[in-house]
Design brief:
The chain has 330 residues and is mostly beta strands. Helix content is 0%, strand content 28%.
Length: 330
């Protein structure tokens, strides 16, 4: 029977192990530090050993133990360096042409090229036919005038207003102080204003005359004076007993007039009443007349008709005989 025997040797700075002294005796020796390992070697002399005995016979082989569990797989090693490329093999035979592949998508549009040089100018084309004449545009006023009065003045019935001042004018001329003479035929717009007081009861009336004759539609009347005192003692007759207030009358008319016509503003107040035009502070206008040509007197000219055909030329008459040449004078 194999036994394990532990031998104790004194150790201080080193250990002495005795391995196997005799396999025949079936002994195994192990060295182990003893409890008295701290004792100096000089206190205990080393024992003497005898000669080694013969080797004993080999014991029977022991029974193999069970295989242990498989250990876990170790970490993968680092990748080795790539090997050198091998030599290029010989080219293979050319294969058959494959079938045509499907058409790929259209590529993007390329950049626009530079503009080419300008070509030579072509020959001038034939002149086209003249287009039809367009309609006549509106006519701009070619005659106008403005006159006014700021001075004190008394105008009797049937007498024209005298104007102290005149403004811009064209093709209309102020004759004296009471009349305006037209320089061209046409349709005219006429406006007037009068401010004054009447010498009798009732409203003031003024009209525009053309060569001393009233222009139809140009007679205008003011309202009754607001300060007039009214008596109702003799009804239904109404009697005005006071007429000291200033009133105004305004008029406007359109008329067709010819060149050379004399236009005037006349007092047409009934009962032979005169009208006094006041001269106030800062000289405000107490009478004015404005005239403007706004259109032609006649209608627009119609389109010209087509030219008639030219008649045939008559036959040429017979040439008469040549006369006799007279004698040469001395």
């Amino acid at each position: 029977m194999k036994q394990n025997i532990t031998l104790l040797f004194p150790l201080k700075n080193h250990a002495v192990f005795l391995m196997a002294l005799g396999a025949a005796a079936g002994l195994s020796f192990f060295a182990s530090p003893s409890a008295n390992a701290q004792v100096s070697d000089r206190r205990r002399p080393r024992p003497d050993f005898g000669p080694t005995g013969p080797t004993g016979a080999t014991g029977p082989a022991g029974v193999m133990g069970n295989t242990g569990a498989t250990g876990s797989t170790g970490a993968a090693g680092a990748m080795g360096t790539a090997g050198a490329n091998g030599a290029t093999g010989p080219s293979g035979a050319t294969g058959q042409n494959g079938a045509t592949g499907a058409q790929g998508p259209m590529g993007t549009t390329g950049t626009t090229g530079m503009i080419g040089a300008t070509g030579v100018t072509g020959a001038t084309g034939a002149l086209g036919a003249t287009g039809a004449t367009g309609p006549t545009g509106p006519e701009v006023s070619s005659a106008f005038a403005y006159v006014y009065n700021v001075a004190a003045e008394t105008v009797a019935t049937g007498v024209s207003v005298a104007f102290s001042n005149s403004g811009p004018a064209q093709n209309i001329t102020l004759t004296g102080t009471t009349g305006l003479v037209l320089g061209t035929d046409g349709t005219y717009l006429l406006e007037f204003h009068v401010r004054g007081s009447s010498s009798s009861s009732g409203a003031i009336v003024f009209q525009l005359d053309a060569d001393g004759i009233q222009i139809p539609g140009s007679e205008y009347s003011s309202q009754l004076p607001p300060a007039a005192a009214i008596s109702f003692q003799k009804l239904p007759e109404v009697q005005a007993v006071s007429n000291s207030s200033t009133v105004a009358v305004n008029g406007i008319v359109t008329a067709g007039l010819t060149a050379g016509t004399l236009v005037s503003l006349q007092n047409a107040t009934p009962l032979l009443a005169s009208v006094t035009l006041p001269a106030d502070v800062n000289s405000p206008v107490n009478a004015s007349l404005r005239i403007e040509r706004i259109g032609p007197l006649t209608g627009a000219t119609g389109a010209t008709g087509p030219t008639g055909f030219t008649g045939p030329t008559g036959p040429t008459g017979i040439t008469g005989p040549t006369g006799i040449t007279g004698p040469t004078g001395p």
